Amino acid sequence: MTEPEEDDAKLRTGIQSIEVGFQLLKALAASPRAMMLRDLAAAADMNPAKAHRYLVSFQRLGMVAQDPVSGRYDLGPFALQLGLAGLNRLDPVKKARPILSQLRDDIDQTVGIAVWGNHGPTVVHWEESSHPVTVSLRLGDVMPMLNSATGRLFGAYLPRQQTLPLIERELKERRDDNLPDLPRSLADYDAVCADVRAHGAARTLGGVLPGINAISFPVFDASGHVSMALIVLGAQTVFDAEWGGAIDRQVREIAHRISTELGYLGGTPPTGTAGHA
């Protein structure tokens, strides 16, 4: 092996002591509260004496802080700065795009991303399947609040004061629309939103586009707020829209994965029960 190859091999092996000590930081990050040394060492699969040596160094660096009264360890000020710096550099849509491309290939259904814009739920990314659906949606289009899966999703998870003007306007402007699934009052819409939250996603069966099923899943940020919606849609003849079905399970897992990468620490939203509306 030549000298450059030896140097490259050393770089690939990394510094084992850093990787070992990092287990303590992972354990603290996963814990809802400060930890005693014995518990922290056990969580990191390390003996307490060894853990203590790492913690002394981490304290000097500001990665760990120790309460002088209880003796418990918690994440330190620099660990918090590091986490905030990482969150501030996250672009949710940029992070989701390559994942959505792979998802489209895996399930062979049209997928997209919508965010909340000045005029409501706005489509910002689109990936067509090998059997693209005939739709008039374009990037920048705003989805209706009352009968689109994406509009209902944002209606269910955003603060009501943020969505109420759009909901009330649609209720007024569309009161004569002859659609069986269209909410006719704010109470009707509240019931729809409660159903969305119960399932952890919104679903329409031919609601906006005849013959097209759609499901929209929330992606949450580090504060627990919905940052965007993952949309999947397809022709009713080839799209399994059942709660708990293959599409629901796979896209729901992707939405939770992206949420976790954005710093969301909550649990997975409720999974729908097959056969229920």
Automatic annotation (TrEMBL):
Any one Gene Ontology molecular-function term assigned to this protein's record: DNA binding
Keyword field: DNA-binding, Transcription, Transcription regulation
HTH iclR-type domain segment(s): 15-77
Domain IclR-ED per the UniProt entry, residue ranges: 78-264
PROSITE patterns assigned to the protein according to its UniProt record, in alphabetical order: HTH_ICLR, ICLR_ED
Pfam families: HTH_IclR (PF09339), IclR_C (PF01614)
GO biological processes: negative regulation of DNA-templated transcription
Record PANTHER family: HELIX-TURN-HELIX TRANSCRIPTIONAL REGULATOR, ICLR FAMILY (PTHR30136), TRANSCRIPTIONAL REGULATORY PROTEIN (PTHR30136:SF8)
Protein name in UniProt: IclR family transcriptional regulator
Organism listed in the record: Cupriavidus gilardii
